[in-house]
Every structure is written in C-alpha cells, then in structure tokens.
Amino acid sequence: MTRVENAAGPQVKRLSDYAPPIFLIDTVALDFDLRDGETKVSSTLVGRRNPASKDPSDVLELDGQELRVLSIVLNGDVVSEADYRIDGDKLYLSGVPDSFSLEITTAIEPEKNTALEGLYMSEGMYCTQCEAEGFRRITYFPDRPDVMAVYTTRLEADAARFPVLLSNGNLVEAGSLDGGRHFAVWNDPFPKPSYLFAAVAGDLACVSDSFRTMSGRDVELRIYVEHGNERLTGHTMDSLKRSMKWDEERFGLEYDLDLFMIVAVSHFNMGAMENKGLNIFNSKFVLADPETATDADYERLEGIVAHEYFHNWTGNRVTCRDWFQLSLKEGLTVFRDQEFTSDTHSRGVKRVADARLLRTVQFPEDAGPTAHPVRPESYLEINNFYTVTIYEKGAEVIRMIHELLGSDAFRKGMDLYFERHDGEAVRCEDFVAAMEDASGVDLGQFRLWYSQSGTPELEVDLEHDVATRTARLKVRQILPPTPGQPNKKPMLIPLSMALLGGDGRALPLELRGDNSAAAPAARVLSVSAEEQEFVFENVAERSVPSLLRGFSAPVRLRTSRNAAEDCFLFRHDDDPFARWDAGQSYLTRAIIAAAQSGGGGEAVLDDDFLDAVGEILNDPAIEPAFAAELLTLPGETVLADAMLPADPDAIHAARDAARREIGLRHTALFRTIYDRLSGAYAPDDMSTEAMGRRALKAVALGYLVASGESAARTLAAEQAAGATTMTESMAALQALNNVECPEREAAMAAFHDRWTGTPLVLDKWFTLSATSALPGTLEIVKELLEHPKFDLGTPNRVRAVIGAFATGNPVHFHAADGSGYSFLADQIVRLDALNPQIAARLVAPLTRWKRYDEARQRMMRECLARIRRHPGLSPDVTELVAKGLGEEG
Ligand code: TRP
Ligand code: ZN
Predict the structure, then answer these.
(1) Which pTM was predicted?
(2) Which of 38, 223, 344, 577 gets the highest tally of CB atoms within 10 A of its CB?
(3) Using one digit for the tens of pLDDT, what is the confidence trace for 144-175?
C-alpha cells in the first residue's frame, strides 16, 4: 500500500501543544477474524466526554494507518461516508454525544506488513507490535497513551494452523467453530493505553512454570516458542522468576495478573516489548543454551527479561501521558534492570559496562546533530526517539536522584509515586515531584537534566599547598551548545571523589564549610555553579584525585592528571569505575598520541603501565570479570571521540600496536592464565564466577594472538575447532578476526557450515565477517547481501550485517574513498521501502560527520543529501537525514 500523508507532509509534534483528549474510551471489544490475505477487525469502543478537557468540540479524532474502512456505526446508527472525514492518518467523526458506543470494522493485510508495526506475520504466526503507534495499523482508535481502556479481545482463526490464540490478561472463553476454525476470548482487567495491546496466533510450543508471589498468589508463567525450541527457554524462565522475586524484595512490587506470558518471534524491530501480561520478545533474547549463546548473550537476555518484567509497574500500571515522557518509563526501567543485574552479579563490572555504553553511543549522540534532551520538546517520528539518550542517559538521571536522596528516601519516593499515580498516565515531572515530596530534597536545579541536551564537561584541577596543608579542587562545568540550545544554565552535578595518598589509600576529607565533624574517605560534591572550589584541610600529603567515582554523573571528565597519575590510580584506586577509568584515560591519551604522530615506530605504552598490567594479572584479589574489563582497550569509536579530526586508520593502527605491546610484554603470563583458566570451570557452568573466568581467558587469548606469534594462532584455531560452547567458539573467532591467516579462514568456514541452519548463530558469523578490519571487507559485505541466508526483511540479519558494518567497522565504514558511506546510503534507501524503523536506525553513523576531516565530511553529507532526495522517503528517515544535514533543531 502506498503511504498517505497529510497534504502538508509529516507534522512536527510539540510538547507545548499537548491538550488532554476530548473523549475518553472506557472499554474496547476487539474481534479479529484472521484469514489469509485479509483480516477483518471489528472494534467496539464505549466512550464518553473527558471531564478534564475544556474543548467543547463534538468531533472525535481517531488515528488509523493503512486501514480499509468497512463500516462505522455510532450508537446503533450507520455513519455514512458523508458524516466522517479521513485526512491522511486521521479519521474525524463529528456529532459525537457525551457518551457513546462506536463500532468500527476495518480490513488489514498482515501478510504484506513488512514494517513489523501493527499486526504482521513472522514465520507463519500472527503477532503484533503496537508501541509506539502501531495500534493505529490495526484499527481506528485514539492511539495516544493517555487514553486508557479495558480490552476484551476475541481471536478467530484456522484451528490447525493457529492452535494457539493469545492476547492480554486472562482467557475467558475458547471453543471450536465450523469449517475447522476456532476462537478464544481474552480480557485484561487493567485499563491500559493502546500501545500495550498484543495478540498472537500461531502453532507454538509452550513451556510453563509458576511463581508464588509475596502475598501467596500463584502466577502461571508461560513461554511460547517454535516447536523444537522448548529446551532453549531455561534461562529465560529462570531470569523471569528471579526478576519477579527481586522486584518484590527491592521495591515491594508484586505481579498483578494470574498469568504472565512471553512469546518469542523471529522478526522484531527491537529487543522486546512489555505488553500487559503478554510480552513479545525478539527470539534472540529468549532462546539460549551454552552451545549456541555466549555468556554475553546470557547476560543481555537476563537483563531484557528483567527490563520487560519491571515495566509491569514502571510503564504499565503507571504509564506515560504522551511520548515526550518516554523516559519516564524507559529511563526508570533501565535503572531498575541495571540494579537487578548489579545485585545479581558484580556491581562494579556492571557500572563499567554501562559507562562504556554511554561513552560509545550516547556521548556521540549528545554531541551530534540528533542530540535531544531526556524529555524532548518536539519530534517528527516517535520511533526515532527510542534512543540511548532516552534510555541510558534517562537511567543515569534516575541514578543521580537515587544517589542524591539515598536508597531509603528513593524507595519512599517510589512508593509515593505508585500511591499517587497507579492507573494513571503521567509526566516525568510527576516522578520528580514524588521524589522531592517523599525526601524533602529540593530537585529544582536538578530538573535541568530533563530539559538540557548535551553532555556536560567537568574540568577538575587539584592544587596542593604543602605549607597550609590544604588541597583545592577547582571545578568548572562547560555545557556545550546543542541543536536549539545555544546557551545553557549550570547544572547540579554530583561529583563523587577521594584523594589517594602515596600508599594508594584514601586520605580523610575535611571539607571546608562542612560543619559536621566527619572526615570520610570519599565524598559526593554537589557541583552547582559554573565555577566552584572545594577546599580540603589538614591534608597530610600530596595526593592524586580519584574522580567521578562510581560514574556519579553522565559527564565528560577533564582532569589535569598526567600519565603517571592515571597509572597510579589504575594500580590503586579502590573504586572499580574510577580504577577502570584511569586505565582508559591512560590508554586513550597514549593511543591518540601515537595516532597523531603517524605511528613512527615509537612505543605506544610505557613501562609503568605495562608493569601495572602484569600486577593486575597476578593479583588474586581482583575478580576475573573485572580484570577482563581493566585490560580491555577503549574501542575505536570511543577513541575517535577523543581525536579531532578523527583518523580511523591511524586509530586502528595505534590501538593494534598497543595490543601487540601488551601481548608481547606478557606472553608467558597470558599463556599461564589461559591454561589455568581452561580447566577452572565446567563449560556449561553459567555462574557469575565461571563467566568471569571465561571473559578473562578470552582477553588472554586476544593478547596472545595480538602478539603476532604463530603458536597463538594455532591455539586459537584449536580452541575454535574444539569448542563445545559458543563463548569459547566466539572468543577464538574474535581473536582471529583481524588476522589474515589460514587459521581464520578455516575456522570461519567451519563455523558457517556448522551453523547455517541456526539463524541466531549464523548472525554471529555474518557479524564477524562484516566487522573484520582485513582488506577487502566491503566487497565481502556486498557478497553477504547475496548470501542465500541474507534477508532484508529480517531485522536481526540486517543488524548483523549492515548495522554491524556501519557501527562496528570504523576502518572500512570510513574508508577514504567514501565507499563505506555510499554502501550504507544505498542500503538505507533500499530498506526504507520495507521497514522505515530499521532503515532509520542505520542513519546515525552518517550524521557524525563533524568529527572527521573535510573530505570525509563532504562525502558523508553528500550521502545524507542523496538519501534525502529519494522520492517517497519515510518520515523516520526524513527526520534523521534532515537533522544530520543540520536543517532542523
Ligand atoms: N518498550 C520497549 C522496551 O523498551 C521498546 C520497544 C519494543 C519498541 N518494540 C518497539 C519501541 C517498537 C518502538 C517500537 O522494552
Ligand atoms: Zn523498556
């Protein structure tokens, strides 16, 4: 079907234009007649005038997209075509009385739905995705989250092909019908916005279990998967039960229905979706066993199961008033899933992983033309706002509130938030107000974190005066301009710090002006002015400042620390984040210096640092998972963020040189560790400890191979050939992936042949192939698009090849001849015709042109302009390309 737009084209939506709905809908009765070719959807809405609306209009405004109207009946009377108006994606019905019943029947074509929004088909099953605005592709409805209704859903389909019929809530009726058909009726007693609606019809296997809640109710848990995949659901079920328990213990939140279902689907635009009582998941985040999923896959799966489950309270019971408030549910729910992971595994390791994600993806977003506040003020296409800023920076904002209030007051704030707003659609402001009221802490200035975009920079300088025994910490905050926000107000930035003395131990901090007698070893300073000075008294010795401990705020830190001081902290800091960060800071400085000097054969790393690496490897007190983090070099994307203009080839070469130096210096030690860890756990032991050991073993193998010795390549080849788990297999392939050698060729070919029939594993082969730095990779990527298993209609595969190339292969994506850019532009245009949401997600790398040299800038902009000229472009891609060219904001 062709895309119909309003005459004026896609409209910008503004937060300031918000008006409450004129009519509310109390109940929805949906009836799906699922048939090949065309599905009929009948919807009966019982509604009434909204007492909270001042607008006297009698026009009911409904959203609908790609729908064919069959009939409309208002309070029993057929509405003729003259009595309603369809304009683009809106249907206007006038003369609507103060209370009404409206029956609308429409026809849709799920088989032709390649956008994967609304009702669509995946591997022969029907499924839905309604967030954010997919429900309007199912039926005409006020498709906005502040319209909350009780849904009853009847599904009717062929009984043999679709034996399983599911929707939200509880099953109330089911039975067979003539002609081999059957039906099921579901009712969800909790009023919900349309974006949380879901329905599934298919031939699926079911794995079930149960959970007894803290008040003693038994909840049935079901996971639906394709037949044959039942045995791959163990970790999902276990993660679900642990999430349910954790939410009771940590937040006192209990599940509210008698049934909780998860359905795995192969074609899915994102990770998973929290539909009430019927979560729908990308199968990638449901199916796992040690043979096919890596430890990292296990951890992500667990985090996503927890995230979607936690949405039941933060998102579903209390939802968003409008999509500008998206971070209300997403930032808060990410914070909750981060806490779950921290409580379950290692808090320090999790903090490092989250900080790395922010630096790799969110800081660049915040520094580019698509930067937006955690609570945006306008958008063209809401799908484009499911960003790392809304999710991850949003979670950091919640975390800062948590740190400012302390966990007891934060918990009181959560309780008050639910007490006030259960069953409502609210704003980020309502959350902040609950926190403020419960704690008595003034969050006035803090609110700027919601409205100001861009990453604050903190310049911190320590001056030590031996004569007066004082140390002055001078702090300056710089708030770089972002689109639409040239000038900014100083923000409230919690800066956690300590001063480490010569033996590496923290000195007592006597802060001038603090009247309490306390002299703690670490403090959280409230930075609130543009420039501020904190004076510490009775400082016995010269010290090194440990800063932004625990990554206390999502800011860029600029310190006057030198390489030796970074090394000192890398050895001694007792805060895991600060210790890791000192290492990253040392490495970034060294690698960028080497990249800038053109790689004239000089050593990249000094002995001080290389010795520290040896000490870490020999220190039994450091947990292996954390040692693995400490020894992982900053990625090329993070390094590019520290060099202007960024030179991707020089960065890659310098980073490689650093890896080789570490590998050569510690070859024997890495080999010892590798051998020791090889026998230290059962391959299918999925405990935190075993995963950590495997992570460190993978790091050791990586450095051994990086040293360039052929024995190491043999070792990797043997590990690849003999691996009984995906973690071992991937560690070996990753170690070999940038080395031109027969071992790599053989291992990759064997992996491909072994896994061609297993899509989720084959995706890993596609990604390895697309992210290799070896010469000729772009040609190989083009061949991958012709691979019999490549399919532009499967988002996982598109991400595994095109997405991986654009974000995980800086050397080839930024090839000096522009070939990487124009390849991506071609694919975006091709994909946009099928799935605009996925096409739009690929645009970001082209919008980062400001960071590169003039020739690359010109080529990247040309590609954006070429995409923009393409006729019939979706609003999704249009918005990002326009922003990328600097035409908006
Ligand atoms: N609410 C989902 C989550 O964070 C995100 C999501 C899933 C989504 N599918 C989507 C957002 C499709 C937009 C479109 O858990
Ligand atoms: Zn979410």
Answers:
(1) 0.98
(2) 223
(3) 999 999 999 999 999 999 999 999 999 999 99
